[in-house]
Description:
- The chain is an alpha+beta fold.
- It contains six helices and six strands; from the N terminus they run H-E-H-H-E-E-E-E-E-H-H-H.
- Helix content is about 50%, strand content about 20%.
- Helix 1 packs across helix 6.
Amino acid sequence: MKHLSKAILTALFLSFIFTQIFFNTQCEDIPNHVIRLHILANSDSEQDQNLKIQLRDYILYNSRSLFENAENKQEAEHIVKANMSKILADAQDYVHSLGYDYRVSGKLENNVYFGTRKYESFTLPSGNYTALRIIIGKGQGHNWWCVMFPPLCFSAAEKQNEGKTLSDVLSEDEYYITQSSEQYEYKFKIAEIYNDIKNFIKGCR
């Protein structure tokens, strides 16, 4: 009986390990299909934080139709790069029109680490994502981020989503993960710890 109990515990432990490995693998692939939008405010003052939100909505509204014909992340990256100068110029003009003299800068960056983030209707696991980072002034305030492709942020600009949806660019298993945050809450945490350790090891090399 004792040996049987050990065998059962071992089997359960191995099952958990293999399940978590599969979950981690699915989570690691999700960043390969999406582009994040990341806006850093000049400071944490109320005015600067309000400006961040205003600029967020402005960028999302102006970008609402950019990805209508993008089939995947690679095509979306090309679109962002091709329109980067206009995106930044429009953002700069908008900030000036509101009476601020802050410089607006930005670029498309790879391997930007994000922790697990739960939104209203979905959750994105931690990982290294491609992100369009927009910096207002000194960029020392709290930031805001969402998903630019597929266009899941655009509801913030009171606009119906166009183009691809999350279910279009992810596998069935990956999409299920993003929609079942409460069920996978502990797995997301384990995956986040795993990513933290992995990034720490990379940084020590």
